[in-house]
Amino acid sequence: MNNPLIPTDSPSGPGKEGRSRSEAPNADADPAPAVSDRAARLASIPSFRRLERYISQLGPRWQTAGCDFTFGNPHQMPPDRFVNTLRDALRPQNDQWFAYQTNAAPAREAAAESLQRLLDVPFRPDDIYLTTGGFAAIALALKTVADPGDEVIYSLPPWFLYEPLVLEAGLVPVKVTINTTTFDLDLAAIEAAITERTRVVIINTPNNPTGRIYPPSLLLRLAELLETASARIGRRIYLVSDEPYNRIVYDGLRFHSPVEFYPYTLLAYSYGKTHLSPGERVGYLALPPTMPRRHELRPAINSLQVAMGWVYPNALLQHALPELEKFSIDVNQLQHRRDRLVSALGSMGYRIWPPEGAFYLYAPSPILDDEAFTESLARRNVFVLPGVLFETPGFFRISLTANEDMIERSLPAFEAAMKASTA
What we know:
Helix content: 25-40%
Strand content: 5-15%
Shape: globular
Strand order of the largest sheet: 2-8-7-6-5-3-4
CATH class of the largest domain: Alpha Beta
CATH architecture of the largest domain: 3-Layer(aba) Sandwich
Mean pLDDT: 92
Number of helices: 14
Low-confidence stretches: 1-21
Order of helices and strands: HHEHHEHEHEHEHEEHEHHHEHEEEH
CATH topology of the largest domain: Aspartate Aminotransferase, domain 2
CATH superfamily of the largest domain: Type I PLP-dependent aspartate aminotransferase-like (Major domain)
Radius of gyration: 25 Å
């Protein structure tokens, strides 16, 4: 078949000889978009665009003189033990120290032992898949069990990057609300959202942004719901449990994971939260020993770790991981900050629910327009995130990773903003 862009009326037939310079095709005049549909779809996600706009407009201010309660970034020097662990891991012990690293055995063993201590579940080292943070672990989980067109259910307010991860994998996000009084999952809403195309449900506990730790009774009911729904639709529904904060727990509470109740759970974890070092990208995806047919998942996960762009942590972090498992940031310090803010803001008239875990306070805005309220705080050099970024208008989020000086300096601004909102 002739290409209609190539002239065929020259004596020499189709080809360069029969085309003048003025007739040469111009690639820059191609009417097709310069970017792929997939990239354009990701760039157009409303919450994504709001987040980028918020960072570009206010980021330079909170990064200089403001009280920064926006993201889970550190605002004090890292502990000596963390720095020394990385320094020690940097010293080569053999000529292969900085060679390609996939899933290093000592790191997998340390992670499996730590999970067993935390959850009393006997994880096996060969079911731990090291990743460049929890972000990559979630993406790896989705691509391991779901095909393009499958549906993924998650609850609002979510971590604001679930939707990009779901769409990039060619999957369909299905959003349900939570109980905004208790911050618990709305199991009836999840059940109603399940269709024959449902493949994955994502939950996040301890939750970002609400700080809720889902209790065993709720996780058991969720497991029963998913088992019944899987039988009804004739295909297995997997649960992805996003647990980067499972060591950040307050008031002596014990954390429970869905892997204790539902065997078809893939657990995603990040050390960036445990050590408040989100720029050091190391985490893992773990399969529980109770998961049926996990022998089929293992080679698939290994292949995806390479095909997704070599999403293994770098060699330094894999060497450091066994020692990183032995300590964490000061959770008592975070709890002290939580208590200080809950008490102070509560006395000003804010309705604050004390988080049970994670880094954040999530509270109703004193006025309906949460963006206007957070802007009023920003004018006073106090920076928080509006609930609209979490697809839950009418709330705002405070990060407890702000330091004590920021907390004390922010209190007059919170009080002034409350008075202005009720004037």
